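Re: [ENG-882] Designed sequences occasionally contain unexpected residues at chain ends

Forwarding the minimal case from QA. Structure tokens:
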């Protein structure tokens, strides 16, 4: 497991729509490598590894994906990460009306005051409401699932982390 530094902000990293691309036209397939996970094909972005390595200088990376522990089974070697990342586990019924299904696990892991950035392709109004009332500095970054994590996202995230 990659060691965590509580002085760094957390970066919660979704996989589908951030690292694993989908929703693109077959004639405009982005650059990447196919990976089969439990029989399902995933196109892993050709730039994901480079971007995650850059972000690892400013953040403690944490998988925040429905893949849960499977992210560590498939992705660290493919992305050249120095080890496994911590991952969040999600309750099948989070019990928050009109909130995102990941929020309870994020709160439990991050606590109320640690700086948190979250990159995901499926942020909703509940996520934005949560971010505005959260005690610690919070940044939400939304990707397009057919493009995923890009250079502009990396620049935005690193600038935010360095400005804390």
């Amino acid at each position: 497991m990659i060691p965590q530094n509580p002085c760094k902000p957390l970066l919660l990293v979704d996989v589908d729509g951030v690292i694993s691309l989908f929703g693109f036209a077959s004639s405009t397939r982005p650059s990447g490598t196919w990976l089969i996970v439990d029989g399902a094909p995933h196109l892993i972005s050709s730039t994901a590894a480079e971007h995650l390595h850059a972000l690892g200088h400013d953040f403690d990376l944490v998988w925040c994906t429905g893949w849960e522990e499977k992210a560590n089974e498939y992705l660290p070697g493919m992305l050249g990460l120095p080890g496994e990342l911590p991952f969040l586990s999600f309750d099948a019924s989070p019990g928050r009306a009109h909130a995102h299904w990941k929020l309870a696990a994020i709160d439990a892991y991050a606590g109320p005051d640690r700086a948190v950035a979250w990159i995901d392709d499926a942020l909703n109004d509940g996520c934005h409401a949560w971010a505005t009332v959260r005690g610690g500095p919070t940044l939400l970054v939304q990707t397009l699932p057919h493009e995923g994590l890009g250079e502009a996202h990396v620049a935005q995230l690193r600038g935010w982390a360095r400005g804390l």
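QA comment: On inspection the terminal residues look reasonable. The helical segments are 48-55, 70-79, 103-110, 125-133, 151-162. Proposing we downgrade this to a documentation issue.
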